[in-house]
Backbone:
């Protein structure tokens, strides 16, 4: 398939582009580079031997999107483009609503006008809010989000669901990612956050190479076995392969479908630190700090639906992901140029 990958130079997008090429698809990338580097294209070429077509444009720019659909016979779209920094979204809500909602609306309009009817959307487990029961199933009622970023995901899910009701010719997959971590084993692609990382793994990796002093563990008084929060950490390569499997599913014309992409296994913050130390052989100094507002005690996925319907399963361990994240951080101490 010719697949338009929006936000395809970002953390998950770039790994997915590699997975698409390895599966014999033809990715075309559009990205405005607001949170990624142009050098990622060279790195994808080094890994796969393929120079991907790239258009630097904003998904909110209808003219630019029309031009892409007119220039390439696009069979399907994977829509990663969006802003994702939770803390920033609280400070700048309009920036998040504007970018995430508008880019999706413009994309859908362009797809409709150009007769492209297959869409995969990057949603998040954040739409479940503070879960009443675990593990989370796709049928678990959505919860209250704690920040504008999370709300954009919930709103876009609703918009796409309403749209699919009246557009039976469209196939749309809402993929609820749990916590993507890790990097490409080559050390060439990985998570490259600007400024101080918000997420656990990039922070741990920067502590491990000495770029930061210590990790703050946000709370050890949660009602969990070791007192720290539990999440479902999924290797980004597994996640990328989940997108290839989802495209295959869309070819069966299923209409609107929803899948949790996780491992089904919960891991605590202390367990992540131990796994990282084991995988890297490096000590990760930490101090226990107060809880971070908006954090839920635990969430992890029930992945039965994805396994059954997508014939896909996460294969890699948290330790594999820690090793790959460490290698990437060591090879790129200041990120990708
Ligand atoms: P990322 O920031 O690394 O990648 C997003 C890419 O989209 C960046 O390259 C950025 O430059 C681009 N972009 C942003 N707005 C754009 C626009 N208007 N037009 C064109 N390009 C634009 O983020 P990621 O971690 O790869 O996440 C990809 C998607 O998955 C996002 O939608 C994110 O919200 C979602 N998601 C991520 C996580 C996570 O933990 N990383 C979890 C759940 C969901
Ligand atoms: C966060 C977002 C979520 C978003 C996801 C991916 C919040 C409340 N949730 O998920 O909406 O989809 O990132 O971008 O921000 N931790 C530490 N020290 C750190 C960093 C994290 O102890 O320096 C802990 C956190 O308290 C949490 C766990 O590590 O228990 C994972 O945190 P993080 O990587 O930020 O992911 P989430 O909070 O699950």
Residues:
């Amino acid at each position: 398939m010719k697949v338009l990958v929006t936000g395809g130079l970002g953390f998950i997008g770039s790994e997915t582009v590699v997975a698409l090429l390895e599966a014999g698809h033809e990715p075309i990338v559009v990205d405005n580079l607001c949170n990624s580097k142009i050098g990622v294209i060279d790195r994808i070429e080094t890994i796969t031997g393929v120079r991907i077509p790239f258009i630097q444009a904003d998904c909110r720019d209808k003219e630019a999107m029309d031009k892409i659909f007119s220039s390439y016979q696009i069979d399907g779209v994977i829509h990663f483009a969006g802003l994702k920094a939770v803390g920033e979204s609280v400070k700048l809500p309009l920036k998040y609503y504007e970018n995430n909602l508008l880019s999706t609306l413009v994309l859908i309009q362009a797809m409709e006008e150009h007769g492209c009817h297959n869409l995969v959307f990057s949603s998040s487990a954040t739409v479940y809010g503070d879960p009443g029961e675990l593990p989370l199933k796709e049928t678990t009622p959505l919860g209250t989000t704690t920040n504008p970023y999370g709300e954009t995901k919930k709103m876009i899910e609703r918009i796409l669901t309403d749209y699919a009701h009246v557009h039976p010719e469209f196939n749309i997959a809402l993929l609820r990612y749990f916590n993507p971590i890790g990097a490409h084993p080559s050390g060439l692609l990985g998570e490259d956050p600007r400024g101080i990382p918000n997420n656990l793994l990039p922070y741990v990796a920067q502590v491990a190479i000495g770029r930061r002093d210590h990790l703050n563990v946000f709370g050890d008084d949660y009602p969990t076995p070791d007192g720290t929060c539990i999440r479902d950490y999924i290797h980004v390569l597994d996640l990328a392969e989940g997108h290839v499997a989802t495209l295959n599913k869309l070819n069966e014309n299923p209409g609107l479908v929803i899948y949790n992409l996780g491992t089904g296994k919960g891991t605590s913050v202390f367990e992540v630190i131990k796994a990282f130390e084991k995988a890297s052989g490096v000590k990760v100094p930490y101090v226990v700090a107060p809880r971070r507002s908006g954090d839920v005690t635990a969430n992890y996925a029930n992945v039965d639906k994805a396994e059954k319907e997508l014939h896909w399963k996460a294969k890699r361990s948290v330790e594999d992901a820690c090793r790959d994240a460490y290698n990437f951080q060591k090879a790129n101490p200041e990120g990708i140029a």
